[in-house]
Amino acid sequence: MAKLDAKAFGLACGIIWGALMFIMGMADVYSTWGDRFGSVMASVYIGYSPTIVGSIIGGVWGFIDAGIGGAVLAWLYNKFAK
Question: Which H or E element spans position 47?
């Protein structure tokens, strides 16, 4: 059974989710698309708002959150795959 590299998986998850948080924030800035997603994420991530700075803050929070979550997920997978 192949093992997952926890650091690489965590980094990949963090980059993807952080970028998506930023993109969704910017979509909310320039249109009404993603309003509900933005309000839910604002309740999860401190400082996230439909502004340019808020989108950057959401991207950073998303990177940290998904990076840690991805690393834990890969670690658990490796433990259970034995």
Answer: none
